[in-house]
Amino acid sequence: MTSETVDSLIRYVDAREGGDEILAELREKLSPRGDLVSPRGRELTQAVFGKPLTPIEVVETICRDVQTEGTSALLRYTESLDRTQLTGETLRVPAEDLREAHAAADPEFLESIRQIRDNIAEFQSAIRHHDVTIEPRPGVRLTQRYTPMRRVGICVPGGAAAYPSTVLMTAVPAQVAGVDEIVVVAPPTRFGAYNQDMLATCHELGIKEVYRCGGAQAVAAMAYGCDALPAVDKIVGPGNLFVALAKKHVFGTVDIDSFAGPSEVIVIADSTASPAFIAADLLAQAEHSPGSAILITWDESIIDSVRSELQSQLAELDRSDLTRDALADFGALILVRDAEQACELTDSFAPEHLHIETADPDNQIARIRNSGAAFLGHHTPVALGDYAAGPSHVLPTGGTCKWAAGLSVNSFLRSGSVTMFTADATKAISEDVIRIAEKEGLTAHARSVSIRTEP
After folding, report:
1. In the prediction, which pLDDT does 368 show?
2. What cofactor is this protein dependent on (predicted)?
């Protein structure tokens, strides 16, 4: 059993005798089911499609039209949904625009971009898969090789804020992998494809293909290809519900990174943690709005201190109203029996971000299997990973990190085996192959071996 108190700021849950149902409820509220839409979204859907459609139906319609009609459908939906008229020629950002944005950029901003690029490249280079060859027996050579994808597409959001960090966290791992062609799509907005910082970042990284389109129509164009935007092999990067549903729809035609939903964090804390730090870390995720921000602690005294810090720090935030709403809808302060229960609850939730602010974080992380990215210690805020540390900030959400991994250099490598046998080695293994093949009734398989071993 659990007891729960909900106030106007954030709910408090005493989960010392349970708690799984609380996390399940929060997870369900954050689930990108695709059947919920805002009043403005319903109005836009009615205006564009002439009838009420669910987000899933909207995405299916857009993807079908772009697949069959190509560039004309891409431009039509860009005009009707983003209120921007473009042509096949103006869809792509000119190279001169990229150069001018870079030339006008703040030198200190560009220096930060270079430093972060180097941080990411250093980490991604260290974890990059490399070919492995073994020779288990004379005449047998077995290789697992890794080759980079030829062409990948990156979705960069641009609705409410600009995200040069997303360009870094997606493009640099692809470059370390050796991808030949990197395509960036961003909505035709002042935060997207017209944002000078984002364009300057692309130029600094050597990205030459940037397109003024977003949403499901951009995902469909990259998946199916059209005259104005040739198809890619994989689509990565965050986006709104329609981008997430479109990526899910085109998976199989192309690869994708994950089925991403709203951002989330669990903070595990004990008496050594600073309530001010904890509150700042919760607010950093709630700021995404929607964003799930959960504290799990076995120190009852810290709950009230964190609530007080949340209240005072909220007043200083630019997005305080949206952040407050996210705390009320998706936040929780959860009291548990001990560190063991904290780890068990966290593992069941499988959070995108996990921040362990305890005296012995190494002990806790060793007991937790499922997290997208973990941050250990009082001085390792999640924002370090969001912007500069080295691992990518593109991570699985919604509990999918139980089986999915965050984006990395290895996400852009495809793996295949290479096998080579000499005549003697083939003869040595032939009886086993022939015996199993004949048991399966595949006599042509057996014959392809026996023909090479007959006198």
Report:
1. 96
2. Zn(2+)
Between CA 176 and CA 159 the distance in angstroms is: 29
Is 352 annotated as catalytic?
yes
Query: Is 353 annotated for ligand binding?
Result: yes
Q: Is 371 annotated as a binding residue?
A: no
Q: What is the distance between the terminal CA atoms of the chain, rounded to a whole angstrom?
A: 76
Q: E-strand spans in 405-454?
A: 413-421
d(CA 94, CA 102): 13
* Residue 263 counted as an annotated binding residue: yes
Q: Of 353, 355, 357, 393, which is the active-site residue? A: 353
Residues 6+ apart with CB under 8 A from 239: 155, 157, 214, 215, 219, 247, 260
Active site residue 111: no
Q: What is the pLDDT of residue 1?
A: 42
Binding residue per annotation — 249? no
Where in the chain are all domains bearing CATH 3.40.50.1980? 3-32+261-390, 95-256
CATH class of 95-256: alpha beta
Q: Collect the ranges in the chain with pLDDT lower than 50.
A: 1
pLDDT at position 43, please? Answer: 81
C-beta of residue 260 within 8 angstroms of C-beta of residue 406: no
Distance CA 341, CA 162 (A): 39
> What type of residue is 136?
P
